[in-house]
User: Fold SEC63 domain-containing protein from Paramoeba aestuarina.
Amino acid sequence: MNAEIVLGTVQNVSDAVTWLGYTYLYICMLRSPALYGVDEKDVEDDPEMITRRKNLIHSAASLLDRAHLINYDRKSGSFQVTDLGRVASHYYITHETIMTYNDHLKQYMTDIEIFRLFSLSSEFANIVVRQEEKQELEKMIERVPIPVKESMEDPTAKVNVLLQVYISRLKLEGFALISDMVYVTQSAARLMRALFEIVIKRGWARLADRTLSLCKMVDRRMWSSQ
Assistant:
């Protein structure tokens, strides 16, 4: 919904309710209302599920407002896009990731902290640490240049290591690890670029310079010291 607000096709709750009526979610709700928590009586009273759609839009708008992606006026029902919302839409960033960045971003951060913040992105929520990977990951921790403070049991440590392995052009042996590294690196460029854009919007020059350098490192697969 944030992308539609940024585009200008959805400007208020009424627009959003209409837009939701064109989605696959709405069709599924009409066909199997019980699966989506809608009672039969509610369907009889409101066959087009307008009230249900309004409730969903209100919940979604409240989440986006809490993440500072939009400004939601609950009285008028209008939406106003923010700079953060534009960044999230442009780089396909989830609102959970934006909320994480809001909580952890600060004006002065080390490379260790930036890489840790990257690894906390919700895009990597499905990454798990498998038992057979731990030995190889522990070897890689010794070879990557930026220290990883988290335990190897922590999936964020794995994401952190895999990104550094990618930049360092190190070779992995496990097929599962290689697959996960591809998954991480597919999102790495846009997430780093999004971090850079957010920092620019906040006017933090030193951190902007650092995040821009990291963007280049990911793109070129080369550390700035090389």
Q: What stands out?
A: The longest helix spans residues 175-202.
